[in-house]
TrEMBL record:
<protein>
    <submittedName>
        <fullName>EAL domain-containing protein</fullName>
    </submittedName>
</protein>
<feature type="domain" description="EAL">
    <location>
        <begin position="24"/>
        <end position="283"/>
    </location>
</feature>
Length: 295
């Protein structure tokens, strides 16, 4: 099942098995070592990109940068696991900053690949909103790489861990003053989604796949999506549906007027050199009746 939000204690319990660091219960130590060098890429970190696609014509309008780590000792570790460990051990800023810098650097090559400028989505752990240095990291990455701020979208992940909405709103406001946009990641997977929408200055909402599982209850999903889309349209918020794996889900979301989607149907996350312009078979496209609803 698609869900990136089963972390915390669960992630620790998943220390055995593929992609979880294997028998290496000292993952926190390995992670600290990998990040202590200040050169995460030399310790097995890299950045993958996944396209975000416009339903009406299949055009890639953005990519999301996703951290990957193959520990020289423990092998490949799943992002849910190492991000969770990093959040608990105070190391998530080092990962986020590495990805941010690499993504801003790669944005120019991606624009070449797709033949036009595209938006770059980078994940920022909500845990970081209460810490110093985030604003400096963002401004620094933009200045170093020359990426126009309007092209950068910061996806706030683990929003359930936002304890102080007023503080988060303040940080988001200051980041937006730099010209970047803010997205709420995995919207609808937590209990306080509407409160966050109400309190935070948000440009983009990423609908969690668990909310749009049309294979479970199509009528309810349709009603729910229509409502969320109506609220977001009123608030001038753009909606991206996550975890689109099947043509039926793409079709359903496009039909209710969701403009953008991301998921294996359109492209798996991959390294820069393996990205291609997605070619969407005609039967995956939404009906033309939905075209007027998309931006
Ligand atoms: P996310 O930000 O919601 O990222 C989307 C996740 O869904 C990615 O998992 C992606 O590979 C996966 N995905 C995309 N399309 C599909 C699909 O159609 N089906 C299924 N089943 N999955 C799909 P990934 O890369 O394993 O990342 C998991 C989570 O780890 C991310 O969820 C994000 O919360 C976190 N993460 C990844 N990179 C970073 C980072 O640089 N910083 C921070 N703070 N968190 C990160
Ligand atoms: Mg994300
Ligand atoms: Mg997400
Ligand atoms: Mg999600």
């Amino acid at each position: 099942m698609y869900s990136s939000k089963r972390r915390g204690k669960g992630a620790m319990a998943r220390y055995t098995g593929r992609g979880d660091g294997g028998p290496h219960a000292d993952l926190p130590h390995l992670l600290a070592q990998a990040l202590a060098s200040g050169r995460p890429e030399a310790a097995g970190f890299e950045v993958f990109y996944q396209p975000i696609v416009r339903f009406t014509d299949g055009a890639t309008v953005a990519v999301e940068a996703l951290a990957r780590w193959t520990s020289p000792v423990a092998g490949p570790v799943h992002p849910d696991v190492f991000v969770s460990v990093a959040e608990r051990t105070g190391l998530v800023a080092a990962i986020d900053d590495f990805v941010l810098d690499q993504a801003c650097t790669d944005a120019a090559a991606l624009a070449m690949l797709y033949g036009r400028p595209i938006d770059m989505h980078v994940n920022v752990s909500a845990v970081r909103l209460g810490q110093a240095g985030l604003e400096e990291s963002v401004a620094g990455a933009l200045a170093r790489t020359g990426l126009p701020p309007s092209r950068l979208v910061l996806e706030i992940t683990e929003t359930s861990r936002i304890k102080d909405l007023a503080l988060a709103a303040d940080v988001a406001t200051r980041l937006r003053a730099h010209g970047v946009r803010i997205a709420l990641d995995d919207f609808g997977s937590g209990f306080n989604a509407l409160a966050q929408l109400h309190s935070l200055p948000v440009d983009i909402v990423k609908l969690d796949a668990t909310l749009t599982d049309v294979d479970i209850a199509p009528d309810r999903v349709e009603a729910l999506c229509r409502s969320v889309l109506a609220i977001c349209t009123d608030l001038d918020i753009v909606v991206v549906a996550e975890g689109i794996e099947t043509p039926s889900r793409a079709h359903a979301l496009a039909t209710v007027g969701c403009p953008l989607g991301q998921g294996y149907l359109f492209g798996q996350p991959g390294p820069l050199h393996r990205l291609q312009r997605p070619v969407i078979p005609a039967q995956h496209r939404p009906p033309s009746s939905a075209a007027h609803l998309a931006s």
